[in-house]
Predict the structure.
Amino acid sequence: MYSGKHSKKSNHISKRAALLVFSLVMILSVTVGGTLAYLIMSTGDVTNTFTPGDVTTTTEETFTGDVKENVQISNEKSNLDVAVRAKVVIAWVDKDGNVLAEKPVPNTEYNIEYDKTGWIQGEDGYWYCNKIVKAGEKSPVLIQSCYPEKGKGPVNASFQVTILSQSIQATEKALEDAHWAHMPATN
């Protein structure tokens, strides 16, 4: 016959196991809580200083009559060294400033002299400055002179040369991400 002793022993083990688990949870809680309290009390404030960069480049050029001269990109207002590229867009415009479909013909309707020692022309049509332009400085001259030939081009049209420049912070990663393959490596 079954006396039921086995049943009581099972309950007694369950109570012991529950008491053991409860004790372990309490010990861990006190230990973790004490460690966190210690870390919070012993760690001082950390100040994270962040100074945002400012990249502001401008195109500088001089004019002597109809001649555009000494075109360069200024990085004088930035606080970062930059890599620079520029696109030269030459067009005939009407009296309202609308670009005409007829494109000026080089060496026939206008003359342009690039400084190829400071710039490299990429296959994408951009001119890449072959040095990093330091904060507070200017790029080498891109266009030494550009002027229309007198009496050439469409009637009642003006000759327009626009320099579209782009600049990015001069770091290896930025140059790589921008795919500016013509730029020199940074130090």
Q: What stands out?
A: The chain has a mean pLDDT of 83.
